[in-house]
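All the exercises in this workshop are built on plain-text protein records. A record pairs a protein's sequence with a compact description of its fold. Backbone structure tokens are a discrete shorthand for how the chain folds in space. Once this layout is familiar, the rest of the handout is easier to follow. As an example, a complete record with its sequence and its structure tokens follows.
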Amino acid sequence: MRIVTRFFLSLLLLSASALASAAPATIGSPRLMQGPMIGAVTTTAIPVWVRASGDFDCWLKYADNPDLADAAESPKVRATKDNDYTAVLTMEGLKPGTRYYYRVYVHDGVAKGMGGVEPFHADSAPESPGRFRVCYGSCPRWGEDRIQPIWSVVNELEPDLFFWLGDNIYGDALDPDILAEEYRRQRDVTGLQPLIHSTPQLAIWDDHDYGLNDHNRTNPVKDLALGVFKQYWPNPAYGLPDAPGVFFQYSYGGVDFFFLDGRYYRDPNAEKDSPEKTMLGQRQLAWLKDGLKASTAAFKVLISGSGFNNGKGEGGDSWAAFLHERNALLDYIRDEAIPGVFVLSGDTHMGEANAIPWSEHGGYDIYDFDSSPLGQIPATDNYMRRPEMRLREPYNAAANAGVLDFDFTGDVPQVTFQLMTQYGLYAWSPIVVRADELVNGVASAAKKRDTASKEWERFTDGGLKALKK
């Protein structure tokens, strides 16, 4: 009897063991839900943003060879529900201007689904100025364009950096969960994946990822929106300890980039313009002035979600509604003899190449290169707007991305601007700006205008006259 009892007990134990081994693990399959995405690289570090499938430790193995021989490991970072399971992992102790290969690990091994693919790669920042390429844009609306063919074109351009200039999602909600959901949908666009895996991504916001259309400092959930932004963008900084926001400075390849927050402190557009009306707020404006004055870079690039020109007119959702503050900033650049400043902007749902002829006021001409949209139907009603000076006819035939090529290899540093369309064609002839043209007393913009922009001006003059009749 004891033998039979022992037999059945053994059988029950074996059955229980078999069932336990067949039961699914309570942790599921540790993997990435979004990412990896490269953040703002330096000469010695590469940050990598990831979003995991649960409350797991995440880390990297990386090396300067694709076999990951003698790979180093990054510190482990816990992805938690409080941070929407996002984490920023960092390759450290790197050599400047060097390509590094990496794999992402989640919980106890390679992130599920990534073990059989080639390691991703990214480059550390160069130690000295040379040549490098920046691509940028704004306004990819996933709800209108879920394919966004512009990304395959940008990938072929092989930029060293990519800048998101706002309306990076169309959250249009006061619920932070909806903003986060829109970030996840945009981050999953298929054609975007190769770009974010290898190219540093830096971002600011505009109204649609900050809150509601044309939202300003009165946004009741702006701090919640800022919290979501921080979760999804691994920027090098977010404002200042005493001034929250998304503004920061970033240096790369001999250029200083000043990313601006045009929403958190912004007065309502409809308020009468005056010296007191502000887009940036006093603290951010003081930070920007101090940074510009301290910079010794040949080029100092302002990154603005709102268009810098006056084309939208009084009360428009751009710097056109804040001309006192804008013009005072241009006067400061002139009075302090700060060379090398130009602007990148977005929002207008068409590509633009404009200039503000501040040489007429004793300074130099300020270029404003606008790219929009990255993915949706371009606008047609903006075509007739008249900024201070058009250098190229506005492009509103398709999605587009801005392309900047910096070159420090000649006697004088220069930058070339072009607008690339989703069809893989440049919209216009290039615009070349030399550093010695961005100094007080030099008028350079007028000679860079092409025939089409002059014809456009005559066309719009006629159109405006007809409308007035």
Q: What stands out?
A: The chain is about 25% helix and 25% strand. Confidence is low (pLDDT under 50) at residues 1-24.
